[in-house]
Description:
By secondary structure, the chain is mainly alpha-helical. The protein has 15 helices and seven strands.
Amino acid sequence: MLIPQSEQLTTRYLNRVFDNTVATYKYYWFLSILDLFVKQGKSRMNVWDIMIHMVAHAWYPVNYFRLSFGNSESLYRAILTLQRENQIPINMRIPDLITLLEQLVQHPKIRKQLDFLQQYVPYRFLRPWIKTSDNHETVLRSQTYENGCLYRLERVDGTLWVELNPVWLTYLQENYDILTSFAYWGLTNFLQNRNPNVPNISGKLIRQEERSPLTAQRKFWNTAMNRGVEVHCLYTNQLLVPGHYDLDHFIPWSFVSHDLLWNLMPADSSINSSKSNKLPDLNLYLPRLAEAHQKAIKVSLGEPRKDKILEDYLSLGHTPQEIADMDREHLLDCFSQTFTPMTQIALNMGFETWKY
């Protein structure tokens, strides 16, 4: 992916900032600078403000979606430690998280934990423009915005500051969306290589604040209930009725990042808070899930008009009619072939198991 060209400045160096990237730092560094400038109007930034935004940008991929950043990634370990030691909710809203982090970095212990973020990336990001591995020399040569570099570095009373090159300001403002996509495109490719079996990496870089209302999925289960199928909560065995249940993502949404019907099951409303994004015990709950889906599929196939959402089951490797006709052994095998490897990958990523 190439960034937009400009008649006023040279963009070829910016196109190369993510070349030979071995960690996520530069991606989050650039995204944070863009946000601080475009959204907050800051062209001169304390490096701690940038670092706080780096942590906030990486928060959900690490804590909520459990993506691996690679064995040598210190940002990943620092975020896990920060969350655990300070008991920060993993699903905290980003603005609230930034406010909390601004308070936490006032403590020497927290500063020590995050200080590594300013030791390399502010200087290495400028390498395409300023070809030296000496950090002190990079600071000196950035003062004149050598080769039209994106920013200059300045240390004042022990604090590092970043000041954007004035010639870049209009370009960054006008091309914010494309430049952000440029960074996320590179980050997606980087993380996909480190999470080869994980679905929908691009959808796990930012947590969606609003989720689908699952209207079609609810209609499917309501129809089954209204046609006489007794649907029990997998976990509490409570008999459920239309309109009085939650739809549970059997394998957590934070892993699958989709709302396909075969992973959704009506559940007692009391379950959501305790199950959260944990993995259910397959030996205990998967047979119940498979049998409930088979009964509901049979009802739906008997309706005058076939529900389009039944096509979701094709990703299990069988048509809805084939699933409806299976004996118990083949039915459980069909579901197990999909859910068992997904569960193992999620366990390897750090998701916890759960049973009621």
